[in-house]
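Same chain as my last thread, 250 residues:
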Amino acid sequence: MKHFFTILGGMGTIATESYVRLINHRVKISKDQDYLNYILVNDAQIPDRTAYIKDHTKENFFFALKDDVEKQSLLKPDFFVMPCNTAHYFYHDLAALTDIPFLNMMDIAVHHFMEKFPKEEKIGLIATEGSIFDKLYENSIVKNGRKVELGGNEIQPLVNELIYSDIKENGYVDGELYHRILRKMHDDYGCNVILLGCTELSLAQEKAPNHPYNVIDPQSILADVTIELALKIRNGMDVNKALSKYLYQD
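reply #2:
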């Protein structure tokens, strides 16, 4: 197979399925051969990311991802994507394992926010407790001159219910709960833009998009970038040239 990319997935599987569905349905096709070439590594056995980030006595999820990256690198994909925000805790360690370019979904999302909403001084962030705890999104946003609003103590239990109880445990998106969270972030905490820092939240956005709020959806953005890059490379553009726009150094 020529010109393919590798998806490091399974974190969780339903969220990965959402990302794959996006790239399959958004690419313009007139025949089977117009779809993108990719290998999906749906490693559902990767230990819980938030559990380790908050408590290093828990099983470290790095080693499972390390094994996936090293094995896939032997196949020489054009690039890696990892549609899991929380797993980006080890992004730099994983990228250092390979010469294959490795897209950073968090960086791509933050730069998209700055480009699309240049006058917004702050952004609301809803995410797993692991992503909030490691401050990767917060640090990137602050480093780029913007402020982060996490909301009050009532927000995280609602987000956890949506991510874990509804989606991860029962495969169900509670659209009303999702909209309630967005509404509270907007109305109670003055967030004109809200970043969805978990791919389960991206799934909620896919399944319940009919609301009036501005969201930055990293998974959706990554899907668009993936399609753009894969088609440029397929059509003859040098891999490094195609990817240079999205391999941020800040």
